[in-house]
Design a protein that fits this description.
Shape of chain B: globular
Number of domains of chain B: 1
Order of helices and strands of chain B: HEEHEH
Structural class of chain A: mainly alpha
Number of strands of chain B: 3
CATH class of chain B: Alpha Beta
Radius of gyration of chain A: 21 Å
Radius of gyration of chain B: 13 Å
Helix content of chain A: over 70%
Helix content of chain B: 25-40%
Number of helices of chain A: 13
CATH superfamily of chain B: Fe-S cluster assembly (FSCA)
Oligomer: heterodimer
Number of domains of chain A: 3
Number of helices of chain B: 3
Number of strands of chain A: 0
CATH architecture of chain B: 2-Layer Sandwich
Largest sheet of chain A: none
Chain lengths: 412, 101
Amino acid sequence: MISISRDFAPPFKLIAPYFVIGVLFYLISSLFMFSLDISEMMSYFEFKIVGLVHLYLLGFVMMIIFGAMAQLIPVVLERGHFSVDFYYIIYPILSVGTLLMAFGFLYSNIVLSFGGIFVLIAMSIFAFETLLTIKGIEKFNTTIVSVLISNIFLWIGVIVGFIMALTFAGMITSNVVLLLKAHIYLVVGGYIFITIIAFSYVLLPMFGLAHGFSKRPLDFSIMSQSIGVVCVFFSSLIESNLIAKIGYLLSLISIFSYFYLVYLINKKRARKQNDMYIISLLISFVSFVLAVIFGVLYVASFEEKFAILSGWFLFVGFFGFMIFGHLYKIVPFLVWYEKFSPFVGKKKVPMLADMVPNRSANLQIFFTSCGLFVESIAIFYKIEFLHTLGVICLCVGAFIMFYNLMFMINYN
Amino acid sequence: MYSKEEIFKAISTVIDPEVGFNLVDLGLIYDAKCNENGDIEVVMTLSTKACPLHQMILQWVEEAVLRELKDVKSVKINLVWEPQWNISMASDDVKSKLGAI
């Protein structure tokens, strides 16, 4: 019998800061967009954009993923953390590193390298804690292998990023354009996407009560994405376009396999109600399809706006809504576990669904979706007015998200 | 001493907080029996091996049986993964409310 003991579950006071800080960074990132005009939005080599992307991906996406991992790693690996106490130091270091990096991109390349050191330390602690937790596992399955591979990619990706930061600071010399491709692919494709694939396989059926679907698309997706990331990484080192293209093709195959997996799970889903989780995931997957379409258009045409739109839908749409959906599931569970589970059978306790502020959650999804799509039109047609409108919607959505998070955390 | 129905009724006081249904209606309780000494054995499963409430649900079942059936001496829970749970094992009411039928 495999059991998840109570000891495996980290205390909520450890996880809560990741979610609160993560959503605060999301709010700051949204507000930061007011400082950009539409022409600045159109170039991914613009330092303001790069600063914003790091603020968003490190401060929001990675912060929330790390917090979720504190809870989910024991669930997936079916064993306790090597030392969960490491999580007490990851979020402060990552927060400082993110702020320094964002500041560095805007004002000072030297500060950028200091930010890089902090981020490298935070990521290294996270990756090695996870690897030490995996060490000693006797029976590996695809999900565990995915956690292992994705953490290795993360660590290498952050090192590549750090080399770039040192280059910007003038301390060393390197080909930043080539490294950029490897950095993005290792962190976004190698860590974030592989993590999403692997955890989708565990979480989607768990929340949807789905059983009896094939696992083969998961294996295929993880394998092709992993090889794809390795190809793109090496193509950067040896400057080979052919290997890079093979890598992109493998990633595309991985994405199709992932969609097929999600389709199979959805087909077998017994729980058909469309709650905040399902609505968020739906928007997330639609965004992902759009990101892929714009990505393919970019490769075919090399028009920069397609690359921007692909990144926009991938980061804000796919990652963002994937995170919102899971926050509406994970946070009530953690709060319930901490505050109410000791009273089961002794007094009336709320259901998890009762702890989600449905009305304001709907508002948050509405405003954020409006922001996502209005901004995409603004980017496509370069319309300043729509850009401002889109950012206003995103900011309103971000404020409501913060309110919702605090509502769930303080639920009594 | 206690019938299977009485034990199931006791366990039906345990609600899964995620889906909002009791474990019996969800079809997670496969069997239950009580011997002459008041020792109860419950055969049950969970909807997923990855359930983060795994250990707690087993504890709640044990507590519910001890709480609801006063003459019980001990409760042993036999957690099994075969047959694997699926929605067809749930009651029609649960299926209907989940939208499965």
